[in-house]
Design a protein that fits this description.
Elements (H helix, E strand, L loop, with lengths): L2 H4 L13 H5 L6 H8 L1 H9 L12 E5 L2 E4 L4 E2 L1 H14 L3 E6 L5 E5 H17 L7 E5 L4 H13 L2 E4 L6 H11 L3 E5 L1 E4 L2 E4 L1 H10 L5 E5 L13 E3 H4 L12 E2 L3 E7 L7 E6 L1 H14 L8 E4 L6 H13 L3 E5 L10 H9 L3 E4 L1 H10 L2 H4 L8 E4 L6 H11 L6 E3 L34 E4 L11 E6 L9 E2 L3 H8 L7 E9 L5 E6 L3 E4 L2 E4 H9 L4 E11 L3 E10 L7 H15 L7 E4 L13 H8 L14 H9 L5
Parallel strand pairs: 4-17, 6-7, 6-8, 7-14, 8-11, 11-12, 16-17, 16-18, 18-19, 19-20, 29-30
Antiparallel strand pairs: 1-2, 3-13, 4-5, 9-10, 14-15, 15-23, 21-22, 22-24, 24-25, 26-27, 28-29
Helix pairs in contact: 3-4, 5-6, 5-7, 5-12, 6-7, 8-9, 11-12, 14-16, 18-19
The structure holds ligand 6R9.
Length: about 650
């Protein structure tokens, strides 16, 4: 075994300096940290000037009633105007806003001028349907340009959108429509996934029957499949939007005007409707998109592979990039349709320069093999980003080497639906990067690690990630439930935002995220993070991906159970399983040796790429499976359960 594959989180010592040319021309230099430290609010007031305000704010932050923040409260702006019109007015109407690539291979190029027309038409259509400032609109769509147009049209008229993942059930959609009291739903007949049309409209029909708030359903024709039709309620997008004028004068709204609600699944209870507002959210998403990816809007081609139904799609497909006048790629489908090189084919086709994807995708590409990306010209890439989960050092290195030609910086960006924008991340032109660590709070962001008693840990210590000062894109509340907002985020540690993530600080004071707090196992009195054991497993050459859970155990309290996906050629033998256990023992210490290791073909994941450890725990503890509705593919659980009797 090579030294390299033995390296892991605890003793990860590889460092990657920014490339000299990137550092020399970087948007942000080390000075930004100093400047923001000296005057945090002044720093954010300056970032707010990236936006075009109808009325400039004079007050940066009102924190007189914590934890309810008001940012730029006397300022007024129109978010859609900032994302679209002003670029056209500045003479960039011909710049491509979106290169759309459909899964079947169809493509569309949309310039900023065209986007302005489409957003205006959609805004006029919503007005005609009676949608007004302050109303809510549910959006249940595939990854097509109309989804971004629909979101911007809501923003343009001051209505809040609530985007619900196209993969969610009718039941999940109905609950969200009801909770937000949405009167209009925007959907499509279907979208393309894994080579075939996948219907959306039936789920909307079912949900609208249950949620009696829905007055109209606007339907984009994407696949042409048959749809049931409710006269008087349902309207085709191409008719209702298509016949509208392309003129619409944007009205200015207060900075705290609700922009959207996005539901996150809590570990218990009903989903939380995370509320984001306008001025602060757009300031931070625009700033972070420009700073973390070193965006040069004239020359870069940005591609964020997330689904718009996830916060990453809101902040880094729609609002951040468009506020910055960026050119970006939007892809409808899955990475292996029609072949496993699809992502790299798209990078090559559009000359993508900045790629933002998730660790789960990276580990899948590792499993498929190095030869696949090697067939494509990826030389346009200059910055690579990761988001969604802790990225294992081995996956980080693989990404940099095989996708980034061992030349591009990798930025591991930590944030949440609740934070609205990136919070902890290296800067590509500044930070000496450490594989697997998100490292440093961005300029203007105050984050640290505290122990159980809320004391800040010193270098080398571990505990919980907290945010110690309000930030512009922070959630304002949980929709309709201020008390739950206080209880969930602001009660664990007084005056600090509790993120729910385990973290530690290394000897340099850099932050390492260790997964959700519920993902920390207690084995014979030792705290062991699932992330660390997973990283140790993935650092073995035979392992492509791993998910680790703590299962109740009579002797040790919890016992470590690992589910692993083996790399292409590795044979599933008892000898290999024993070797993997020893490998974890050698890397992290004997206490971290999994009691059981089960090779599987797939892991249960949500559509945003997070492993559903809760379900694996159910399996490991021989329990009936909990709710599987948010899984991308619920059949994987049957496969995994079928495996169990073979456990050693
Ligand atoms: C953006 C997004 C938030 C949770 C968060 C954490 C995990 C996201 C991460 C990361 C380690 C990173 N997470 N990015 N963990 N390193 N770079 O994913 O939002 O879907 O709300 O999830 O995701 O556990 O608390 P969301």
């Amino acid at each position: 075994m090579s030294n390299e594959s033995l390296a892991n989180l605890l003793k990860e010592e590889r460092r990657f300096a920014p490339p000299a040319d990137l550092a020399a021309n970087a948007n942000v230099t080390a000075e930004a940290y100093e400047q923001a430290k000296a005057d945090r609010l002044g720093f954010w007031a300056e970032q707010a000037r990236r936006l075009t305000w109808a009325k400039e704010p004079t007050e940066t932050l009102d924190w007189s009633n914590p934890p309810f923040a008001k940012w730029f409260k006397d300022g007024e702006l129109n978010v859609a105007y900032n994302c679209v019109d002003r670029h056209v007015e500045a003479g960039h109407g011909d710049r491509v806003a979106i290169h759309f690539e459909g899964e079947p291979g169809d493509s569309r190029t949309i310039t900023y001028a065209q986007l302005k027309d489409e957003v205006s038409q959609a805004a006029n259509a919503l007005l005609e349907l009676g949608v007004r400032k302050g109303d809510r609109v549910a959006i249940y769509m595939p990854m097509i340009p109309e989804t971004a147009v629909a979101m911007l049209a809501c923003a343009r008229i001051g209505a809040a959108h609530s985007v619900v993942f196209g993969g969610f059930s009718a039941d999940a959609l109905a609950t969200r429509i009801q909770d937000a009291d949405a009167k209009v739903v925007i959907t499509a007949d279907g979208g393309y996934r894994r080579g075939k049309p996948s219907a959306l409209k039936p789920a909307v029909d079912e949900a609208a029957d249950r949620a009696d708030t829905v007055r109209h359903v606007l339907v984009v024709r994407r696949t042409g499949q048959d749809v049931a039709w409710t006269e008087g309620r349902d309207l085709w997008w191409h008719e209702a939007v298509g016949r509208q004028s392309t003129e619409h004068t944007p009205e200015a709204f207060e900075a705290e005007q609700p922009l959207f609600i996005l539901y996150t699944s809590g570990t218990t209870g009903k989903p939380k409707g995370i509320l984001h507002t306008s001025g602060g959210f757009l300031t931070q998403t625009a700033y972070t998109h420009w700073a973390v990816f070193d965006l040069k809007p004239e020359t870069d081609v940005f591609w964020c592979t997330a689904d718009v139904g996830w916060v990453t799609g809101h902040s880094y497909i729609v609002y951040g990039p468009l506020a910055n006048g960026a050119t970006q790629v939007m892809y409808e489908g899955t990475p292996d349709t029609p072949h496993q090189g699809r992502f790299w084919e798209i990078v090559q086709k559009y000359g993508v320069t900045i790629l933002y994807t998730a660790p789960t995708a990276i580990r899948t590409f590792m499993k498929w093999g190095d030869d696949i990306p090697a067939k494509f010209d990826l030389s346009s890439l200059r910055v690579l980003g990761s988001v969604g989960e802790p990225i294992n050092p081995e996956a980080w290195i693989w990404y940099r080497k095989n996708i980034g030609a061992d030349r591009t910086p990798v930025v591991d960006t930590w944030w949440q639906t609740e934070t609205g924008g990136i919070m902890v991340s290296p800067l590509p032109g500044v930070t000496g990067a450490k594989p697997g660590s998100a490292q440093t709070p961005l300029p203007g962001i105050a984050a640290t690690v505290v122990d159980d008693e809320a004391r800040e840990v010193s270098a080398g210590g571990g505990g919980y990630l907290v945010l110690t000062e309000p930030w512009p894109a922070m959630l304002r509340t949980i929709w309709g439930d201020d008390q739950r907002y206080i209880d969930t985020y602001w009660s664990r540690f007084e005056g600090k935002y509790f993120a729910g993530d385990g973290a530690k600080k290394d000897d340099d004071g850099d932050i390492w995220l260790l997964g959700r707090v519920d993902d920390v196992m207690l084995v014979s009195g030792h705290n062991i993070s699932t992330t660390e054991v997973e990283s140790a497993l993935v650092s073995h050459p035979s392992v492509a991906e791993a998910a680790v859970v703590g299962a109740a155990d009579e002797t040790t309290g919890q016992a470590i159970v690992a589910f692993v996906i083996l790399r292409g050629t590795a044979a599933e033998t008892e000898q290999l399983v024993a070797e993997l256990r020893d490998h974890v023992g050698a890397t992290l210490g004997p206490i971290a040796k999994p009691k059981r290791i089960l090779p599987v073909n797939e892991l249960p994941k949500t559509r945003s790429g997070k492993i559903m450890r809760r379900l694996l725990r159910d399996v490991a503890e021989n329990r009936q499976l909990g709710d599987v509705t948010t899984l991308t593919d619920s059949t994987v659980m049957d496969l995994i359960q079928a495996k169990l009797p073979q456990a050693p």
